[in-house]
């Protein structure tokens, strides 16, 4: 056994295995090739690119890959046929798995491939039935379709669409993402219209509110405040000012009688005047000023807030 292991190690050392990565929908033969029947050849290509081109070309039945001795690059050829094969050290021959898979709009077909696990549900139905089920579920990313020995068709909806593995006789359908990117310019335009309408609405609302309610409360508050203030002011300071410029008699008289009458008169007059002024003019100017200020402030705030 030790002698066998030593010989096997020497064989692996001098003749390393060719790397032939598995490709879903194809069977691969390592260190084998099919000479001739070339559809197209390229001197620099990857295995995945060759498989993609062969899959999309109905004439292609197989493809090979090998290391070009002159350039050292990986090269390959698409082929009309895959048989017969012959030994070819360092070559990989990939044969397309042919199955009777229907073409279903909205799905990418991978014949002879499957993703194992991640089943949402499995049931007896055709490929079109499986497509209908998968299309009706947002969590379905793919489905497969296959026929069992008794001739019954089954389909399994999948939460995940990759990775794929070779599976003879199975058709695998991956849902195509039809989501369109957001039209940024249209989105910003609609958002600016929304902010403008909202600012106009708030401006009108605040103007009406300030014109009605603020005028009432402000006029009442200021008239009461000024009445009290003027009464006190006229009762105290006015009598002192007049006593300086008038005689002692007048000062005494004014200090006693005039403040009472004058303060009452002026306070009543100013109270009425201010009430009328505040009720009519002040609310208009104040409401216009505040509504303009608030509308500008709200517009700027909404623009910054909605832009984030």
TrEMBL record:
InterPro entries: Pilin_PilX-like_sf
Domain of life: Eukaryota
Alphabetized UniProt keyword annotations: Membrane, Transmembrane, Transmembrane helix
The keyword Hydrolase belongs to this UniProt entry's keyword annotation: no
Transmembrane segments: 188-210, 216-236, 248-272, 284-306
Protein's name according to its UniProt entry: Pherophorin domain-containing protein
